[in-house]
Write a structure and sequence with these properties.
The chain is of the alpha+beta class and 396 residues long. It is built from 15 helices and 11 strands. The strands form 3 sheets. A 6-stranded mixed β-sheet has the order 1-2-3-9-6-4. A 3-stranded antiparallel β-sheet has the order 5-11-10. Strands 7-8 form a two-stranded antiparallel ribbon. Keywords: Heme, Iron, Metal-binding, Monooxygenase, Oxidoreductase.
Length: 396
C-alpha cells in the first residue's frame, strides 16, 4: 500500500483532484491518509463502496464525538456549531430534524422559485453589463445570486443579504477560530431577533413555516430554529456561489464544451449535472465508525475515521468512462456531489435550478464572455474541504 499522504491537499488545477491523490485512485475502494494532527483515517475512493458506506448508519456524523476525525485544524472551532446542524446528528434525532424541513425543500417548492431566481439573475446581469465591459464575477454575480435566493427562501429581508455574505465568508474562509466564533454569534443573534419578529409579524419563508410549526406542535424549539436558519443560510449560498464561479471558469477553459452549450441551450441541465460530478467542490465528507464495518477483505474498526473525497469517487473509471473529461452526453446523476444516504444535501433541488438559470442566462446574455486574466494567475481557494474561486475577472 502507498505511504499515507496528507489530507486535505491543494488542487494544482481548480477543476481536477490534487495530484497527490493520484496514486490512491488505484487503491480502490479503500486506502489511508493522514490528517493535520497525525491521525490516520480511511480514504474511500471507490464509487460503489462510497455510496454503500454513506448510506450505512454504522458510520456517525456526530462531530462532538472524541473520536470524530477533524479534517483541518479549523474544524476544532466548528465542533460546537455543527452539533446543532443537520450534519451533526445521527438518527433518530437527525430524522426528526430533517422531517421538519423536508416540506420546505421539495422539488415542487424549488420549481416554484424559478421566476424569482430568473428575475434575480437578470437584475444582477443588468447591473453588471451596465457597469461593463468587465467585472469580477464572484462579487458581482456568483455570490449575490444564491445569497439573494436563500434570503428569499428563508424569509429574511432583502436588504440583509450583504450581511449574510460577509458572515458566511468568515465562516467558510476565515482561518482564525475567533473569526469563526464571531460569525456564528452574529448569525445566531440576528436570527434570534428575526424569529421573535416573525412571531408577531409573519411573512412567507422557511423560517415562518418553522415558527408556525413550533406554535402548533412545540417543535422545533428556539435553539433549533436558530441553528436551522444558520446552517441553511451558510450551506445554501456559499457552496452554490462556488459552483457558479468555478463552473464558469471551467467552461471558459473548455471552449469546445462551451460552444456546445451555446449552440444548444437544452444541454444546460445535463451540463450542470456533469459539472457537479467533475468539480466536486465539497471534497471531503467525514464520518467515524460506531462499530466494525467490513468492506471487502478489509474492516473499518469502531472508532476509526473515514474520509470520502468526492473528487475521486466521482471519477471512478469503473462507473464513468474517461472520467477526467467533460462530457454532456454522459449520465452523471449517480454522482455523490450532494453526498448520499440520510445526510444527502436537503437543498439539492434548489441548487440545481439556481445553477441551470445562472449559467444558462450568463452564457446567453454574454456571448463574448472570456477570462480577463491568464487562467493560471486567477486565485482559487487553497486546500480545504470546500473548493472555489477567490476571484474571477472576466470581460465580454
Amino acid at each position: 500500500m502507498t505511504e499515507a499522504v496528507a489530507f486535505p491537499q491543494n488542487r494544482s488545477c481548480p477543476y481536477h483532484p490534487p495530484t497527490a491523490y493520484e496514486p490512491l485512485r488505484e487503491e480502490r475502494p479503500l486506502s489511508r491518509v493522514t490528517l493535520w494532527n497525525g491521525r490516520q483515517v480511511w480514504f474511500v475512493t471507490g464509487h460503489q463502496a462510497a455510496r454503500a458506506l454513506l448510506g450505512d448508519q454504522r458510520l456517525s456524523t456526530d462531530s462532538t464525538r472524541e473520536d470524530f476525525p477533524l479534517p483541518t485544524e479549523r474544524s476544532e472551532s466548528l465542533r460546537r456549531q455543527r452539533r446543532g446542524a443537520l450534519l451533526g446528528w445521527d438518527d433518530p434525532e437527525h430524522n426528526e430534524q430533517r422531517r421538519m424541513l423536508i416540506p420546505s425543500f421539495t422539488l415542487r417548492r424549488a420549481e416554484s422559485m424559478r421566476p424569482r431566481i430568473q428575475a434575480i439573475v437578470d437584475r444582477l446581469l443588468d447591473d453588471m453589463i451596465a457597469a461593463g465591459p468587465s467585472a469580477e464575477l464572484v462579487g458581482a454575480f456568483a455570490l449575490p445570486v444564491p445569497s439573494m435566493v436563500i434570503c428569499e427562501l428563508l424569509g429574511v429581508p432583502y436588504g440583509d443579504h450583504e450581511f449574510f455574505e460577509e458572515q458566511s465568508r468568515r465562516l467558510l474562509r476565515g482561518p482564525a477560530a475567533e473569526d469563526i466564533e464571531k460569525a456564528f454569534r452574529s448569525l445566531e443573534g440576528y436570527f434570534g431577533e428575526l424569529i421573535e419578529t416573525k412571531r408577531t409579524d409573519p411573512g412567507e419563508g422557511v423560517i415562518d413555516d418553522l415558527v408556525a410549526r413550533q406554535r402548533e406542535e412545540g417543535r422545533p424549539d428556539d435553539d433549533e430554529l436558530v441553528q436551522f436558519a444558520t446552517v441553511l443560510l451558510v450551506a445554501g449560498h456559499e457552496t452554490t456561489a462556488n459552483m457558479i464561479s468555478l463552473a464558469t471558469y471551467t467552461l471558459l477553459e473548455h471552449p469546445a464544451r462551451l460552444a456546445e452549450l451555446r449552440a444548444d441551450p437544452g444541454l444546460v441541465p445535463a451540463a450542470v449535472e456533469e459539472l457537479l460530478r467533475f468539480l466536486s467542490i465539497a471534497d471531503g465528507l467525514v464520518r467515524v465508525a460506531r462499530e466494525d464495518v467490513p468492506v471487502g477483505d478489509q474492516v473499518i474498526r469502531a472508532g476509526e475515521g473515514v474520509v470520502f473525497p468526492t473528487s475521486l469517487i466521482n471519477r471512478d473509471d469503473s462507473v464513468y468512462e474517461h472520467p477526467d473529461t467533460l462530457d454532456w452526453s454522459r449520465s452523471a446523476r449517480h454522482h455523490v456531489a450532494f453526498g448520499f444516504g440520510i445526510h444527502q444535501c436537503l437543498g439539492q433541488n434548489l441548487a440545481r435550478i439556481e445553477l441551470e438559470i445562472a449559467l444558462g442566462t450568463l452564457l446567453r446574455r454574454l456571448p463574448g464572455l472570456r477570462l480577463a486574466a491568464p487562467a493560471d494567475r486567477i486565485p482559487f481557494k487553497p486546500g480545504d474541504t470546500i473548493q472555489g474561486m477567490l476571484e474571477l475577472p472576466v470581460t465580454w
